[in-house]
Amino acid sequence: MEETSVFENFEMQLDHSAKDFLQETAKWAYFLSILGFVGIGLFALIAVFAGAFFSAMGSAMPGMGVYGSSFGALMSFFYLFIGAIYFFPVYYLFKFSSNAKRAFRENDSEALTSSLGYLKSHYKFIGILMVSILALYALFFVLAIFGGLLGR
């Protein structure tokens, strides 16, 4: 005879205030995701214009040598790379908000579960990104100290 625990049979219910909080969160998440998509578009636009600007500037400066015009390509790649990284958390936030709004509109618990999965993915991506950036900062700090000691 198998015994089932109380937690296996536990089903969580959302009260009215929790639903209101989630609905308001979904509205703000939708607003922020739209602003994020606009920001990604601006990054792409800046990538095109910065690439052209820095290529022209690098070609005009005789001290840059053969690498002068390639600096624009590097700047374009940098802005497109940042935009690509920024796309994923914004996309997850958009999917959370649209699924949460649909869940409350249609009283669909599967859509709410899906939306919370996208919210988890959003925060997981942001967390991994923060850990990566902190590790990069630590590496730069160690390299700066090492360079300072070698420069003495």
How is this fold's topology laid out?
Layout: H1 16-60, H2 70-106, H3 109-151
Helix pairs in contact: 1-2, 2-3
Based on the model shown, name its key terms.
152 residues; mainly alpha; 3 helices; 82% helix
Notes on the structure:
This protein has 3 helices and no strands. With 152 residues, it is mainly α. Helix 1 packs antiparallel against helix 2 (70-106) and helix 2 runs antiparallel to helix 3. The radius of gyration is 24 Å and the shape is elongated. The termini are far apart.
Summary, kept brief:
The chain starts with 15 loop residues before the first helix and ends with a helix. Helices cover 82% and strands 0% of the residues. It is mostly helical and 152 residues long.
Helix content: over 70%
Kindly report how far apart the N and C termini lie: 75 Å
What spatial form do the alpha-carbon principal axes imply? elongated
Put simply, the count of helices is 3
Largest sheet: none
Class per helix and strand makeup? mainly alpha
Order of helices and strands: HHH
Q: How many strand elements?
A: 0
Can you give the mean pLDDT? Answer: 88
| Share in β-strands | under 5%
**Low-confidence runs (pLDDT<50, min 5 residues)?**
none
Radius of gyration: 24 Å
Number of domains: 1
